[in-house]
Amino acid sequence: MLKDITLGQYFPGDSVVHQLDPRSKLIAVVIFIACIFTAESYVGYALVIAVTGGMIALSRIPLKSIVRGLKPVMIIIIFTAVLNMFFTPGKVIFQVWKISFTQEGVVRAVFMVLRISLLIAGTFLLTYTTPPIALTDGMERLFNPLKKLHVPVHEMAMMMSMALRFIPTLIEETDKIMSAQRARGADFETGSLVQRARALLPLLVPLFVSAFRRADELAVAMESRCYHGGEGRTRMKQLVWHRRDTLAIVVMLLALAALIVLRRFGL
């Protein structure tokens, strides 16, 4: 299960999506999220699915990697679908005690599952195709105007980037700790849900110790390299905006405009 968590991982490549400026990808992801929450019909969701499929095809990221990233949140997706199916008022298909299974609930459950899945797939593509350093530079450049309001933009971007970067590291560390405890007789796979959750508690102490140790090592490494925030900092690779970045934003805006028209006319 832990190996299925791919958030924060970067898949090197030379696809069109990899070559996009990180700023354009960040803007495109925001527009994509707006598209997901604007869609409210089968036609609208079909359009969003087509856009997502196009992005995955252009990125050359294997579809199985996207699907694998959905596995850790599958319980949340199923739980959300069940809640919508049984607690949405409408035309009753069948009833168990006081819980009704409605036709409107089925439709709403399908839409919610699609919404969560597309949201995760779209945002995962950002980290899959963008190195953490480039993502930091992109966020800092986008929020650069906030520096006039004395907002620590560079520090915030750096913290977000490091958080994403260390997610795979912490997952790998957790997997090692679980393997070591299994070798000592720990059981994480049998028993009820409560028993499994209780068996995971001994993992917290060594995991937190490891996380704090890595944070301390990172702080010492940054200080030894005379890191003092973004002031006076130079970059080896400068961000350059190309036509393809403008085209990507235009395509996403056209998709959003089409969804708004579909929603307005009830299609």
Listing every helix as H and every strand as E from the N terminus to the C terminus, the arrangement reads: HHHHHEEHHHHHH
What is the beta-strand fraction?
Answer: under 5%
Number of helices: 11
Major sheet description: 2 strands, antiparallel
Physical arrangement of strands within the biggest beta sheet? 1-2
Summarize model confidence as the mean pLDDT: 80
User: Which class do the helix and strand fractions yield?
Assistant: mainly alpha
> Percent of residues in helical segments?
55-70%
Which regions have little confidence, pLDDT < 50, spanning 5+ residues?
Answer: none
C-alpha termini separation: 39 Å
Instruction: Calculate Rg over CA atoms.
Output: 22 Å
> Rough shape?
flat
**Number of separate strands:** 2
Describe this structure as you would to a colleague:
The protein has helices spanning 16-19, 22-38, 42-59, 63-70, 74-87, 103-129, 132-142, 153-183, 193-199, 204-224, 243-264; strands spanning 92-96, 99-102. It has 267 residues and is mainly alpha-helical. It has a two-stranded antiparallel ribbon with strand order 1-2. Helix 7 runs antiparallel to helix 8 (153-183). The longest helix has 31 residues, at 153-183. It is flat, with a radius of gyration of 22 Å. It starts with 15 loop residues before the first helix and ends with a helix.
